[in-house]
Description:
This protein is mostly helical.
Amino acid sequence: xxxxxxxxxxxxxxxxxxxxxxxxxxxxxxxxxxxxxxxxxxxxxxxxxxxxxxxxxxxxxxxxxxxxxxxxxxxxxxxxxxxxxxxxxxxxxxxxxxxxxxxxxxxxxxxxxxxxxxx
Length: 119
């Protein structure tokens, strides 16, 4: 089960165009797990309502269960997008550090930009 990530992105220097991406750890269960539990509870309510013959109530509970399932999927999509964004920003920060250190990546691997041949 995926959970919303929490991370502290540490850039080598503050970047003026990037927002602060320090996320705090979630307190309590993750939203996906909470939605999953609520969905199961709604399904049980549907079952009990059908057993009692309350079809209108069963429809309402079924709609709630569907809504909770969609909410859970949306939280999973959000977690995936946050992971991808943090990964891209970390990669960009690392490449900026490498380029500011005077290194580049060539076909043969890492090499120093200040290297001169024959002299």
